[in-house]
Amino acid sequence: MNIEHLKLFCLVVEEGSISQAARLNYMTQPAVTRHIHHLEDVYGALLFDRTNNKLTVTKIGELLYSYAKTIVNEFNQSQEAVNQAIGKYNETLRVGASFTLGEYYLPNVLGRFKKQNAELNAKLSIKNTPSILEDLANDLIDIAFVEGIVQHSDFTVEKLAEDELILVCSTDHPWKNAISIDELENERMIWREANSGTRQIVEEALRENGILSKLNNFMEIGSTQAIKSAVEADLGVSILPKLTVLSELASGRLREISINEVNITRNLWIVKKTQRFTKKVVRDFFEYVKAYQS
Prior knowledge:
It is a single chain. The chain is α/β, with parallel strands linked by helices and 294 residues long. The chain contains eleven helices and twelve strands. Helix 8 links the parallel strand 8 and strand 9. Helix 1 crosses helix 3, helix 1 crosses helix 4 and helix 2 crosses helix 3.
């Protein structure tokens, strides 16, 4: 048995498919199957149930996975640590981010960091917060930038910034600079989808102010960019992260309207996995982001 057997086993468990694991590892399906059978021979137990052409992990497989994942992670970290120590290190920075940060904040920051580190191979993955944190837990990314609550004992969490959620309308809208919260009752509200973290924060704030149930939920759109276009066309108004509308506010395509005595904010977080070895490029980027933000 070698480390490759364990790597392939973990990949099959995570993908739930031998064919998918083979594709991702540029191998044939029979080759992956042989690796799995070898592990089963070594441990003397079935690791997968193949009943009715459906692959499921057995109880023994689940038990082995927790150990195999630790072994693989420790091996990968040992390789990185030794390569870094002897100067034989190919710098790759794998960043994961939730949608707002990934689309409106990190491209600029990561691009500037890349300019200072010409040999750097930078990769940015954008998903929802739970998916990004799962990727971090599985060592698919080196560092995560997310909004929302982060609860994981293996993570180190540091506040990046506080993001304000603001009311925006078109330039043709009769509103001036500020309104009372009751004035929202007469407006067509354009929302993100129901499971959006941004929408949940906004709804909770409006609920606390006794206005949520009185609003006209005119439209749900699953894209911030599309919501901005709809508001710009004067189809309705919306409450969006300020980070996502800076360009439109600066160019005058949208207007920010203050809601008297209401301030909606959320925290943005930098998340790293707590481990003995952290790649130098990850440490450098972490420090760069903190300096950039200050």
